[in-house]
What does this fold into?
Amino acid sequence: MKRALITGITGQDGAYLADFLLKKGYRVFGTYRRTSTPNFWRLRALKVLDKITLIPADMADMSSLLEAVNLADPNEIYNLAAQSYVSASFDQPLFTAQVDGLGPLRILEIIRHLNKKIKFYQASTSELYGESIEDKKMQQNENTKFLPNSPYATAKLYGFHICRIYRDAYKIFACNGILFNHESPLRGLEFVTRKISNAVARIKLGLQKKLFLGNLDAKRDWGFAPDYVKAMWLMLQQDKPDDFVIATNETHSVREFVEEAFKNVRLDWRKYVQTKEELIRPKDVSILNGDYSKAKRILGWKPKTKFKDLVRKMVKSDLMRWKKFLNGDRFPWDAFDYHENIDILKRGKTK
Ligand code: NAP
Ligand code: F7E
It folds into this structure.
């Protein structure tokens, strides 16, 4: 049985990847952060919480990471943990650099010293491109230059290069997945797609009157998270480690996402959406549009979910949650969580 360690297993991608790897027959370990309120709602939603082993660790704490790798003794490590919200990286730039930049270095150092056979996946990002293309019609591929536009992207750029350097210098099987935006009903509520789908559901049900947004002109290449976690796994199953763009090759503006989401509940978005200056970032990326040809050619990967299906799935899921809430069911995003019956590896416990 192959063993995988996922850092950031409580996040959107971590939960979907755990589900995917369990279905492939892996024993799955995941790191989680100690928080005053447990944060296992995604793992519960996918019914994987009792099938995985959780290990407490923080990306800023080398000794907890070392212990996690030691306890999991993995064949593959998927480094998904990060301060992933671009906007917050302007408020917490040093923390973001510590976790998103030095975090992958810590894991690579552990692999280098402990077991160079462990394969490593680094969650890299289309944010690395920033504003690097002058011709807005051009698509971004593995050869497009990087020109990061935020503290988040700069920290991730360090992660990208350190991964490439450890691959070349120490012959570690290390891959960067340059993933474009990917969303789902399990997306965090602060990201624009989920903020929209959640608000649309609430407005439809009379629970909210307005939706405040920032830059409606920004364009993103939005895919579906479960399609994307498969690409992460495929990268680690190849004969040679490499870096891959994972995208849909389509780009849409925030305005188009809003329009489509409101269309799903037959409402006119213009009556409900207002822009707010405070929601505009100090620096934003105006357009991202990927080219996944290399992943298609080498990994045999392509996205299954189209833009309109993605919007529909997200709106439908939020509508269902809020309808349940109105019927007296649990709070929609299951925030109240308990530690019962979870297989948590404690410090010092043997493998
Ligand atoms: P997410 O939902 O925000 O999940 C991030 C995960 O990292 C959570 O489990 C979080 O734990 C954990 N984490 C944050 N800081 C940590 C720390 N200091 N120590 C340990 N764990 C920490 O993000 P996602 O959308 O799943 O994305 C997964 C990865 O892909 C991230 O590295 C992100 O930067 C990258 N990425 C995402 C996208 C996208 O569109 N989704 C695109 C490209 C790249 P808590 O649950 O405790 O907060
Ligand atoms: O913003 C604009 C905002 O926060 C998308 C992360 O997963 O993908 C994600 O980063 C766009 C931006 O995602 C609001 O200005 C307008 O132009 O959903 P987002 P992101 O910044 O693209 C990349 C690939 C990652 O790697 C990251 O980890 O939407 N926008 N109004 C807004 N954005 C937010 N959040 N909230 C608004 O009200």
Summary: The CA atoms of residues 88 and 152 lie 8 Å apart.
